[in-house]
Write a structure and sequence with these properties.
360 residues; alpha/beta; Aspartate Aminotransferase, domain 2; Aspartate Aminotransferase, domain 1; seven-stranded mixed sheet; four-stranded antiparallel sheet; 11 helices; 34% helix; globular; binds pyridoxal-5'-phosphate
């Protein structure tokens, strides 16, 4: 059983676009890509007149070290959003092979499924005493019965903040071997107590993990996301990816962000964010009109209100923009509030306090 059996048959041997940078040739004079021989006068670092490497080796090695995997297990994309799209395209035949999601959840899985015209199976999260929880048995049954090729799990979940135990993910991957690729989106993994699912990859070829520099590493605008999975699957997806997906300035910025001193500062900030998450959660739970604050392992909290519209309006009047979740399944009264700087979190707490508290 190979993970390639879960890839669209017409793409298993697809070689993709043969770009000038992929030939592996080396020389002194580069006349094979119709590039300008002169850097742009606007390009002070003279970095951008040549097409970039499709997967710059230095960045692959640095990200592999960051995530504790080998470079062959890793595909770098324009954010993890691109990796989500590539996974759907490469594994789902339109109108046949389904994608399973557990709403309320990050919206891009459904968007990519829709663009591919892949059937979407929704297995709602269960709202239990401890918070939201994925119903992994129902997910497995739906995938088996309705012919899913992809299952997206989000852990920590966005917008719900819950995590899925590694043993449960391993059991799901084992059960769906030969049926579906189980993708675990760890966009918020840095803020969580759990170890990464990457530790399970050796055992399960049909498991894939999404990581990103957009959240904890503060590089949302650089668009650097990583898919980690079996090398055979990574090789297929590379051939489906755009020829030069990674702009050189973004690659340089990502490399700079992975330098040891920068990583140290990033870890300090993660510690602050986790402490602020606890402080914000406790303060919100004590506000009048707050029905429930869900436990969160991300850098955000999901909050139910007696009157979510009024809470949204009061925050907006104070200049604070939060995510209205009321259109999402099971979240008719909820807002998602990102954990900001301590001052920003103070503004949230003040805006949701009564007038006496707000002047304090
Ligand atoms: C923010 C987010 C992403 C998007 O990450 P990019 O790398 O910026 O594309 C992916 N998954 C989840 C769950 C997110 O919340």
């Amino acid at each position: 059983m190979s993970v390639l059996d879960l890839v669209r048959p017409d793409l298993r041997a697809f070689a993709g676009y043969s770009s000038a940078r992929r030939t592996g040739a080396s020389g002194r004079v580069w006349l094979n890509a119709n590039e300008s021989p002169w850097p742009s006068p606007a390009d002070a670092g003279a970095r951008c007149n040549r097409y970039p490497s499709p997967q710059p080796e230095t960045l692959r090695v640095a990200l592999a070290a960051l995530y504790g995997v080998t470079p062959e297990q890793l595909l770098i994309g324009r954010g993890s959003d691109e990796a989500i799209d590539l996974l759907v395209r490469a594994s789902c035949r339109p109108e046949r092979d389904a994608v399973v999601i557990s709403p309320p959840v990050f919206g891009m899985y459904a968007v990519s499924a829709r663009l591919q015209n892949a059937p979407l199976i929704e297995v709602p999260l269960r709202d239990v005493a401890a918070g939201f929880a994925a119903d992994l048995d129902a997910i497995a049954r739906a995938a088996e019965q309705q012919g899913a090729r992809l299952v997206f799990l989000c852990s920590p979940g966005n917008p719900t903040g819950d995590v899925i135990a590694l043993d449960d993910i391993a059991a799901l991957a084992a059960r769906l071997e030969g049926q579906a690729i189980v993708v675990v989106d760890e966009a918020y993994g840095e803020f969580s107590d759990l170890p990464s699912v990457t530790t399970l990859l050796q055992e399960h070829a049909n498991l894939a993990v999404l990581r990103t520099l957009s959240k904890a590493h503060a590089l949302a605008a650089a668009r650097i996301g990583t898919l980690i999975s079996a090398p055979e699957l990574i090789a297929v997806l590379r051939n489906c990816q755009a020829p030069y997906p990674l702009p050189t300035p973004c690659v340089d910025l990502a490399l700079a962000a992975l330098a040891p001193d920068v990583l140290e500062e990033t870890h300090r900030r993660i510690t602050v964010a986790r402490a602020e998450r606890a402080r914000l959660s406790a303060a919100l739970a004590a506000r009048p009109g707050v029905r429930r604050v869900y436990p969160s392992q991300g850098n955000f909290v999901l909050v139910r209100f007696d009157d979510a519209q009024s809470a949204f309006d009061r925050l907006l009047a104070a200049g604070v923009v939060v995510r209205d979740q009321r259109a999402a399944l099971q979240l008719h009264d909820a807002l998602r509030i990102s954990v900001g700087s301590p001052e920003e979190n103070d503004a949230v707490i003040a805006a949701l306090s009564n007038n006496k508290d707000a002047t304090a």
